[in-house]
Amino acid sequence: MDLRELYQEMILDHGRRPRNFGLLEEATSRAEGHNPLCGDRLQLHVRVEDGVVRDVAFEGAGCAISVASASLMTQAVKGMPVDEAERLFRSFHSLVAGEPSGDGNGADLGKLEVFTGVRAFPTRVKCATLAWHTLHAALTDPDASVTTE
After folding, report:
1. pTM for this one?
2. Of 54, 69, 99, 122, which alpha carbon lies 20 to 30 A from 129's?
């Protein structure tokens, strides 16, 4: 199995069996995200304490890329200081959009690098980044609503 196949398998696995899927009752902020182009919709629930993302979960429905991105994102940011989660958001966005990270202070993407191939499909970039924009909104403007348009 080559690396591309392994990456596709990871995206399919998280798309079919998303981690941290469901309501988070003790959330301190929430945000909704919508991608009108393909119909992806999600609600993100975040519990931040002492500047750290203590827990995060999501609900909603979307394509495999959107759901897998939300699933992997929740795993990546859980337990992370808010400023590091924001840095990871910027690094992830740069990765999938094919942009240089600019400041040289990009975060280590780890498993999130499975989304590298998304940049070859510009319409799918919005699918991959929806959860991330929604996370950014939840961290900066609780109870916000975002759209990819």
Report:
1. 0.91
2. 54
Regarding the domain delimited by 3-141, which CATH topology (the fold level of the hierarchy) does it fall under? Sufe protein. Chain: A (3.90.1010)
Helix (DSSP H) and strand (DSSP E) numbers for the chain: 4, 4
Q: How much helix, strand and coil, in percent to the nearest 5, is found in the chain?
A: 50, 20, 30
* Cα–Cα dist 25/23, whole Å: 6
**For every one of its 149 residues, what pLDDT tens digit does the chain have, with 9 covering 90 and above?**
566 776 788 999 999 999 999 999 999 999 999 999 889 999 999 999 999 999 999 999 999 999 999 999 999 999 999 999 999 999 999 999 988 765 545 568 999 999 988 988 888 999 999 999 999 999 998 777 888 87
